[in-house]
Amino acid sequence: MVTARLSPTANLLRKSRVFALPQALAPPQERPTSRQVFESDSATLPHPIRAAIVTPSSSLLKGDWGLKRPLPAKTTSARSSRPVVRLNALDTFEHTTDFESAADHTVTLEKFQELHLPMSLPEKVSYSSNMAPRHSSPFEARLDNTEKSNGLRDPAAKKFRHSGPYLASQTEAEFQAYLDTVRRDKPKIMKKLRSYFLAKKKAERRKQAQDSGDFAGIDEPFVFDAEEFQAYVKSLRTDPFSLGPVIFQILDLPPPPMIPSDLIGKTYYLPPAPQLSAPEYVASGPPKTHPSAGLSYTRSHALVYNHPRFGPQTYQRPVEARVLRPKGRFKNKGGNAVGGVAGIVVEDLNAMAFTEYDGPAGIDQFDVSIPGGAKYWVNPIRASINSHGRIDLASYRATVTSRAPYGITEYQKPRIMKAPRYVAHSGQRQVPRLDRARPQTGTFSASEDLGSPADNPEALARDLMKSFT
Q: How would residue 350 be classed by pLDDT, with cut points 50, 70 and 90?
């Protein structure tokens, strides 16, 4: 077999790491709001938009990253033992390579993989119940489909992505641009509508044959004329309830949110039954990425956490969570506790309504006396990707049983020791006075010692009279 010869330039481009980098993704868009938004330009993005680049240790000593020019060691190997960079621009106007550290996302990925959690489809978690939500893997054959998958032939098949846009999240300009696209593709859309009309007529003929019992000519091709098709189109235009499912199916649009209750008695375009893989996608829209986002490819929780001394455990080793914001009222609204688990911000971290007496230290209010900040132990139970490409992590507070095999205890604030009280012979408890006069040595005899001078004012008066004489 003769292999094709490549020129030196083509061979260089095939082995170049620069040409192997994928194209950068669009940064996450901000939600449209009329309020003032305070954000940092250097804050970590919810998901990476550029590929992370690593280099072997032998090349790292030379500053060779497979790019156009070597990178300085002062900003790479001198700052970290495992430097990872992402490329913003290969060559700028100043003839430099614009890069930055990619450890914010790579370290988060390593921390998440240490949790050993499979990715699940999004589902609401109720912290008032002790029952963990049911796990649904996004890799199931009936759920892991797109508009081009062969598995959609199954009547029970669902998908996580549609070819059409999510109209509920579009602005007016985006919606008008989509309408212009639909007008340009009108011949293709009418062709799909004819196929839909043909399939509907075949289904009606099959149903009539089953009801009458006469199956003669059921396999013959169905032929319709242009007038019959135009009459069908006019009937759809006059009936929004019938036109809605046809539009959503032909244009392959995701289902909209639930119809408001004030429109039930009015005429509206009825959407078809949702085909999305998770009910949460119906309310918030289809996901921008795969429901797993490539974080984990484990399909179930079927793992055994074997302790070297105590054997198999129900839960794995608890994870220490940091309290980023304690419970309280923020901007005149009741605020839930916000914490960080494996580099992921988790809201409603407390499984139950913890109080000051039974909750972890620092969960109710900010406490500067806790060394290293407020932390406590949790057991992550569920991880999923929402419609905006963010990680939703649910966790329960680690119980005493899950912490016992590893010798983990919650932080307890030291108790304040109370000062001892002086007890007089009368049996009454008195708080010691700090501004009282010190008794002189030898002023009281053993018979006259009835307690402290403050407890026996008569003895104090006799002592003063003796000192004056």
A: low
